[in-house]
Structure formats: structure tokens, C-alpha cells
Amino acid sequence: MLLDCVIIGGGPSGLNASLVLGRARKKVILFDENKPRNAVTHESHGFITRDGIKPSEFKRIAREDLMNYPDITMENQRVTDIKKENDAFVVRAEDGRRFRSRKVLLATGLKDELPAIEGIHQFYGKTLFSCPFCDGWELRDRPLVLISEDNRAFHMAKMISNWSNNLAVCTNGNLIFSEEQKEILIRKQIRVFDDEIAALEGESGRLAKIKFRNGNELFRAGGFVTTGLTQAAPFAEVLGCKMNNMGGIETDTLGRTNIEGVYASGDNSILAPSQLIIAASEGSKAAIGIVHDLVNEDF
């Protein structure tokens, strides 16, 4: 059977794209390896009607919605390979089965790479986060830290100051601020610590203090960290998709990549900001683009 579209990635982008395609009477398969980037997150925010929902519960409700549409099939397994054969894409699943499809949507997302600091993983997703728009409200008015090793620190410090006026920035031994930026931070009463971090300490996921290698300590109740971001799957590169200067998959407004028949949506294409509602909307737009193209080809 020739499918209309194979969707790789079962996050909010892939789920919403499946919904739009299913409602357009297109035969689709959604592949979901179930290794979401937000697995460490206890609550997701910023999505109207779903504010504060657990990511696993969001996915459960979404998959229930998709079950109402007979042309949508969900496969709980990994895709291992994609290649173009004549006018169709051949997608190989982990169990060895091959699926032929007219279109492919990459909604595979990104992976976070945390700084190599002892203890950081036990706090990430609990009291240490990457997005103030997602989690700033829960940390409002607390003494916060921003841990950043690159030039995103100045922008992030400005954003975080919207939720707390008690902020310190730790660069873990990296000199990343210009003199002008330092002067601005000082005027805003934001302290900068350029010392190397030895470890983060606290209990039950609650950050309590940052210990520096020089023996000093900084007491904080939570904060944010700038993470490295990499593609969670290699398929964009395998298919020859053009990447933007931030490492995301370059697309037009309806998710089309430079490779005909290949679309991308969600975090893997826009990179930032990363929110459920944005990823879901990107999936919807890409699905609309796919339907437009399928209908025009068949008309």
C-alpha cells in the first residue's frame, strides 16, 4: 500500500500533524519511539486548556483523539532508515517492515546537551529548566541562577529578570560577557560568577546551592541553564535537507524542506522557543502544506 504520509516523531508536532492529515482523509502512519525531550518535565505550561499538564498525559489524550480517525495508524517503534525509490519514500521500521509513502514529515525533535557539571541532571526538569516562558512563573520571586557557558547568557539573563529580581549568572569559568554587558548587569543588580563550578547540591530535585572549585558557595532556590541542542535523529541529513545557521531544518512557512516530498515541523525545524503549543501549531501548518501538495498533484 502506498501511504500519503509517514510522520516520524510522536511529540506534539507529529501528533497534531497526524490529526490534521487524518481529518483530511489522508492515509498516514505515525512512528513514535517514545523518547521525548520533555521526559524529565513534570508539568508543561503555556498551552491554553492544558496548562500544567503532565507530558505523558498530554500524549495519552492526543493519541485518544487520533483513534477517532480510521486513516491514522500509530506504530510504537523506531524508524531505522529512509530512502527515495522512484516517486516514493521507503521507510524501514525497527521490526524490519518497509512502508512506502508519497510524503515524509520529520517531527523528530531535538536532544538537550547539559553542561558537564556534577549533579546537574538531578535538578534538570525539577527546579532547573531551559525556558523561562515555560517555567518562569513557578520560580517567580525566588533567588535564581542562570548557568550558561556561551553568548546566549546575556539575552537569557534579561529574560529571566522578568520573573525574579534576585538573579546570579554562573559561566563555569568561561569569560563570555563584554565590558558593556557586565556594566549593564551590574546596574540591574545581577551578579556574575566566572568561577568554575564544582557541583550543584540539593535534595529531592530541589536546588539549594552551587559549589565552586575555589571553595565559595552560592545559595539558590532554582534557575535556568542554556543547553546544547542537537538533532534527535539523522534523517534530515540522510535525505539531504538544508539546515539553518542554528542547526535546525530549514523550511518554508508550510514545513516544506528543499527536498521535494520531505517536510519538517516542531523543534527540529524552529529550534527555539520550544513550547508544546508552538510545536503543535508547526505540525498543523506542515500537515496543511502536505494536503495542499497532495491535492494539487492529484487534481
Automatic annotation (TrEMBL):
FAD/NAD(P)-binding domain: residues covered: 4-283
InterPro entries per the UniProt record, alphabetical: FAD/NAD-bd_sf (IPR036188), FAD/NAD-binding_dom (IPR023753), Ferredoxin-NADP_redctase_2 (IPR050097)
Alphabetized UniProt keyword annotations: Flavoprotein, Oxidoreductase
Cofactors required: FAD
Top-level taxonomic group: Bacteria
A molecular-function term among this protein's GO annotations: oxidoreductase activity
Subunit field text: Homodimer.
Name the UniProt record assigns to this protein: Pyridine nucleotide-disulfide oxidoreductase
Native species: Cytobacillus oceanisediminis 2691
